[in-house]
Design a protein that fits this description.
The structure is a single chain. The protein has 164 residues and is mainly alpha-helical. It has a single domain, classed as Ferritin. 65% of the residues lie in helices and 4% in strands. It has five helices and two strands. Strands 1-2 form a two-stranded antiparallel sheet. A hairpin with a 3-residue loop joins strand 1 and strand 2.
Length: 164
Amino acid sequence: MDCKVNKPYPLVRVEKPNLEYASLLLEDYSGLYSELTSITQYVYQKFDKFNVNEIFSKTLSEIAMVEMKHLELLGETIKLLGVEPRYVFKDNFMTYWSGSFVDYTTNIIDMLLSDIKLEEEAINKYEYDISVIDDEYIKMTLYRIIEDEKMHIRCFKSLLDLVC
């Protein structure tokens, strides 16, 4: 199952440093519905349930690798915006990423529904960022990431169809 859009990512660039934009992207980088949370959740699931089924295992591995690319793109962008890309996000104060952000459910249907929700929330956040960020380079990167996230939803729905 192919879970990545067959299209190159844009070069990581920004028009100029901007701490406000960096703060927005830190939430995508390591917030509740972030790339870091997605990677961690999918790797956990691969070892828990999906390891018993090769299709599930391969799909989760592929999606986690794509999310790692997203994490890298966001980290490079945040750095260019003038902030060190640590696993923190701003929510009235600095909050560090936590393993408590991962959904540790062990029911395969609930796992897939959680994964779909995680991808949908990420898309919603990226769309919000695009609406408030006035930097065409960042917007290109976010639009490209959204394409992958939509593909991930289709992959998770296909897996859900297999188990329902």
